Amino acid sequence: MKDENPTLRTPYVTGLMILICVVVFVWVQPSATKSFDLPSEQETIEDIRFTYERAAIPCELSEGRPLTAAEIAATVQGGDTEACIDRLGGGGVSPFADKNIWLSVLVSMFLHAGWLHLFGNMLFLWIFGNNVEDQMGRFSFLLLYLISGVVATAAHVLAQVDSTVPLVGASGAVAGVMGAYLVWFPWARVRTVIFLAFIPVWPRIPALVLLAFWLISQFFIGNDAGIAWVAHVAGFVFGMVTGIIARTDDGFERSLQAQYRRMARIR
Questions:
Q1: pLDDT (0 to 100) of residue 146
Q2: Alpha-carbon gap, residue 181 to 133, rounded angstroms
Q3: Distance in angstroms (rounded) separating the CA atoms of residues 179 and 211
Q4: b/e string for 54-71 if b means 16 or more Cβ within 10 A?
Q5: Per-residue pLDDT tens for 159-178?
Q6: What angle do CA 27, 156, 226 make, to 5 degrees?
Q7: What was the pLDDT predicted at 267?
Q8: Which domain covers residue 213, as residue numbers?
Q9: Smaller CB count within 10 Å for the chain: N or C?
Q10: In what helix (H) or strand (E) does residue 229 lie, and over which residues does it extend?
Q11: Torsion-angle region of residue 30: left (phi > 0), alpha (psi -120 to 50) or beta?
Q12: Is the pTM of this model over 0.90?
């Protein structure tokens, strides 16, 4: 899967974001997250502790405090995904009392729940991020990426304010990049793979079609699927709005038109 959209500059920030996510997943996150076999009980406990200690959690952000031991137990052992029960505060002891719940919003963008989660996010970031970075410039692209992730997290918290399930992944940030790409390069061709009767074919699909399909599909994901679809949509919309605002600048628009001419020469 790749797009037919040349770049003029090396996408250093895009590459750096991918590198950080891969390094964190492979060398920092516990082994249970990346195991292809059924993890041991000890590995599972380590994974739970690591995630609850570092990841963003809606209940924590809405209440302004770390989860209590009772809330974590109700979620992990009892299966209650909305165990935000300590409404008055001080009614329980937190095992992670020193957790910086606001910093966890940033940390969560670099944690992933498994190999497929990591691969999917990094693939889409590489395909669409290099052109968005090329068009915006490195610093502006970094701001778009990080702010999209924050906006996505905020939307998820508002949608599931009582959730005690950790939120991990770069999906919201990547969605912001995809939203900007859609506004700037709707007719760029993306070569993807589709299996017809187990036979792979490689159609060249306009980014408008591919990304619109992705966006619409998010609304068909149920809340019990374990996927933060509201975060995806919010990040995507933020990226689109940013892209629309950027096009009001005459210099930016001229640069974009020049890129269209380069794209036309390779078709």
A1: 99
A2: 10
A3: 8
A4: bbbbbbbbebebbbbebb
A5: 999 999 999 999 999 999 99
A6: 60
A7: 65
A8: 2-265
A9: C
A10: helix 229-246
A11: beta
A12: yes
**19 burial type by CB count under 10 A (0-12 exposed, 13-18 middle, 19+ buried):** exposed
pLDDT in tens, 36-79: 777 888 888 999 999 999 999 999 999 999 999 999 999 999 88
Residue type (1 letter), 76: V
User: Helix 115-136 to helix 250-265 angle, to the nearest 10 degrees?
Assistant: 110
The C-alpha atoms of residue 207 and residue 185 are separated, in whole angstroms, by 7
Q: How far apart are CA 156 and CA 218, in angstroms?
A: 13
In degrees rounded to 5, what are phi and psi of residue 222?
-75, 155
**What does the pLDDT read at residue 86?**
59
Q: Strands 204-206, 189-191: parallel, antiparallel or unpaired by DSSP?
A: antiparallel
Number of domains in the chain: 1
Could you tell me the two tokens for 237?
């919309």
The pair of three-digit structure tokens given for residue 195, joined into one six-digit string: 């299996």
Written as one string, the DSSP assignment of 101-141 is TTHHHHHHTT--SSHHHHHHHHHHHHHHHHHHHHHH-HHHH
Environment class of 97 (CB within 10 Å of its CB; exposed 0-12, middle 13-18, buried 19+): exposed
In this structure, what CATH number is given to the domain that contains residue 132? 1.20.1540.10
